[in-house]
Specification:
Elements (H helix, E strand, L loop, with lengths): L9 E5 L9 H12 L7 E6 L5 E7 L4 E7 L14 E4 L1 H8 L15 H4 L1
Parallel strand pairs: 1-2
Antiparallel strand pairs: 1-5, 2-3, 3-4
Pfam families: TnpB_IS66 (PF05717)
Protein name: IS66 family insertion sequence element accessory protein TnpB
Length: about 120
Amino acid sequence: MLGDISKAESIYLACGYTDMRKSIDGLAAMVQQNFHLDPFSNSLFLFCGRKCSRLKALYWEGDGFVILYKRLESGSFQWPRNQDEIQKISQQEFRWLLEGLSINQPKAVRKINIKQAI
């Protein structure tokens, strides 16, 4: 199905500002060169420009890339601005982001890594 991003195993958020004029090739090159990740993996890559009301998503479907573009009519995305970083986020954090919330919810219950807790 065209643009079925629910099958993505990982979601990566490109922190900082991205030139929203970039096309599929430009975003895929950015994933490879800047973040040293494989754009052909089963991952969703998210990008946001200076206007925090727009984002692009890049996803490889196995036979080609899908690029999705979302523009909010009011409000803005709470986008982390640590330049030149990529951040792996969970499905829940992705939902928060699309709802206009910060991905760092202070009252959210976080999963505990049992090996580190012992």
